[in-house]
């Protein structure tokens, strides 16, 4: 029997396996083929904030990806909703909170490659390649995982990183709260005439946000959220027509669009699990929470799950305790559920306020943004909260852990 098995080798699962190793917890990672974009390469980047970057440093993968990443020195919000009461343009500078940068924009494909390479080398991570876990049998003292190949494995703690349709979550008996989200994101890289000056820009539009995030050189990554039919049309356009559309919607921000990379469509969902763990199964990443890409919250939240679950399992094993006990799962839930619920609520509210045609909602949104713009302590508070929740960060996300 193993102490800890991680299920799912997406970014959340791989980071957890390496965080556990860093905390002295040998673990097994069940790695099914990772195809977030189906047959296409994943064109997404992730804007990762400083605590997440620190985690990547502390688990030893940052040096392998840094050359492909671009720093994020400022974040600009532009109201493009055509609402009667238009919000002001807001730009948050990392220097306002005494940081050089908010974080870095990291290509997901590069991140996955670096995490995989590190996990292959880590003596404390045993990788089991499999077509996936097909079933879980939950006992009092252990969980048995039945693999597609017919083998089975036992563990005291299962960390479920098996994505938004998590089988482990269902086996644990954890329900989810879902909000309708009739939106699809078009994600691609593009090259442009003007320098982005390390500023990420989020256009708030009625169909959803359109965000351009710096990449090295005169390049940016695009996440353009639209109604599914419009997204399908954008996906089907030839490169020239798409570039023309993009340039028009960016309103000259980055000058002429010189080239666009392959586009991939990601249907969005918004969901939060009712609990972060039960029956010896702890949920992390999108197994626990999925949300539209507003304010770059998704993977940052997942990496906090990873750092905390590794800490709790490490402490339990060091003290000779059972890492899958109700006590440990309770501690994990207390540490992580408020953050997950708050982020989910904030992202959901902002998304709903964007797409709402109701004038009172538009007024409230505009007034809120005016207030944030005008009150520096409020701006700084929001910037701190955007990067990380209140309270101390888990040790693996702190600078002094190095
Ligand atoms: C367009 C877009 C832009 C985004 N931008 C940002 C951003 O800028 N910043 C940010 O922080 N976040 C961002 N996100 C969110 C981020 O991409 C996701 O949170 C993250 O990719 C989810 O990772 P995950 O490991 O939890 O899940 P997944 O990537 O879905 O991985 C789940 C893994 O589990 C495996 N699996 C599934 N079932 C089984 C099974 N039964 N047995 C074994 N394995 C299984 C799958 O094969 C897969 O490898 C964005 C999301 C989108 C859609």
Structural features, described:
The chain is of the alpha+beta class and 402 residues long. It has a single domain, classed as FAD/NAD(P)-binding domain. Helices cover 36% and strands 28% of the residues. The protein contains eleven helices and 22 strands. The strands form four sheets. Strands 1, 2, 8, 9, 10, 11, 20 and 21 form an eight-stranded mixed beta sheet that branches. Strands 5, 6, 13, 14, 15, 16, 17 and 18 form an eight-stranded mixed beta sheet that branches. Helix 1 (11-22) packs parallel to helix 8, helix 8 (298-318) packs antiparallel against helix 9 (326-355) and helix 10 (359-374) packs across helix 11 (376-387). It starts with a strand and ends in a 15-residue tail after the last helix. The model has no long low-confidence stretch (mean pLDDT 92). The protein binds flavin-adenine dinucleotide (FAD). Flavin-adenine dinucleotide (FAD) binds next to helix 1, strand 3, strand 13 and helix 8. The site of flavin-adenine dinucleotide has 33 residues, from helix 1, strand 3, strand 13 and helix 8.
